[in-house]
């Protein structure tokens, strides 16, 4: 089946139910067990079609919001089988994966997103550190920098703080 974004996924659920009204279970449907099975097979498909497998932080997703997905799954199944005198005790997604044909590509996309998020956090932290350094230097009068020297210092600090390798010291012999 496909998620909200159209990505092919595999999804399965575990459903625990009980018969609350035996007369209703026997007379409302031909075979309550088969009826419950049919409804519980359809519910994960519907759940998947309403939510993306993965997404942004502010978005409900199948992978990240497991408690919400379980509540939604339980409510959906219950709404379809209530007329059969059956109560859903528990329902949760037991298996969730990208379909094998796209799993590797989606894993690469997840890794790329994680790298971008990490780099964003590093840059935000580095900019804060540079601002703090400039403020402290000005506040304590350690050194007075003209705009060109500030720009050079900012560039050097950002390279050091955001770089993937350790900083290599350079000794300046003076200005030219």
Keywords:
alpha+beta; Tetrahydropterin Synthase, Chain A; 2 domains; two-stranded antiparallel sheet; 5 helices
Q: Which blocks of ≥5 consecutive residues have pLDDT under 50?
A: none
Largest sheet features: 2 strands, antiparallel
Mean pLDDT: 87
How far from one another are the termini?
67 Å
Shape: elongated
CATH topology of the largest domain: Tetrahydropterin Synthase, Chain A
Rg over CA atoms, rounded to whole Å, is 29 Å
The H-level CATH homologous superfamily of the largest domain, spelled out, is: Band 7 domain
Tell me the quaternary state.
single chain
Strand order of the largest sheet: 1-2
At CATH level 2, the architecture of the largest domain is 2-Layer Sandwich
Name the beta content range: 5-15%
| Structure summary, number of beta strands | 2
How would you characterize this protein structure?
This protein has 176 residues and is an alpha+beta fold. It has 2 domains: 9-98, 2-Layer Sandwich (Tetrahydropterin Synthase, Chain A); 104-162. Helices cover 56% and strands 14% of the residues. The protein is built from 5 helices and 2 strands; from the N terminus they run βαααβαα. Helix 2 (32-50) packs across helix 3 (66-81) and helix 4 packs antiparallel against helix 5 (147-162). It starts with 8 loop residues before the first strand and ends in a 14-residue tail after the last helix.
Brief description of this entry?
The protein is of the alpha+beta class. The chain has helices at 22-28, 32-50, 66-81, 100-140, 147-162, and strands spanning 9-19, 86-98. It contains 5 helices and 2 strands.
């Amino acid at each position: 089946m496909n998620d909200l974004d159209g990505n092919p996924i595999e999804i399965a659920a575990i459903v625990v139910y009980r018969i609350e009204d035996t007369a209703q279970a026997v007379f409302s449907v031909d075979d309550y067990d088969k009826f419950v099975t049919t409804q519980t097979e359809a519910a994960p498909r519907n759940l998947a079609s309403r939510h993306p497998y993965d997404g942004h932080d502010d978005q409900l997703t199948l992978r990240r919001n497991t408690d919400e997905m379980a509540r939604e799954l339980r409510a959906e199944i219950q709404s379809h089988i209530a007329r059969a005198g059956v109560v859903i005790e528990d329902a949760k997604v037991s298996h969730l994966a990208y379909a094998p044909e796209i799993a590797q590509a989606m894993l690469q996309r997840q890794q790329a997103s994680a790298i971008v998020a990490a780099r964003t956090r590093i840059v935000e932290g580095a900019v804060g550190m540079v601002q703090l350094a400039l403020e402290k230097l000005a506040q304590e009068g350690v050194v007075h920098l003209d705009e060109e020297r500030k720009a050079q210092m900012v560039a050097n600090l950002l390279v050091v703080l955001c770089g993937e390798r350790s900083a290599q010291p350079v000794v300046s012999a003076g200005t030219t």
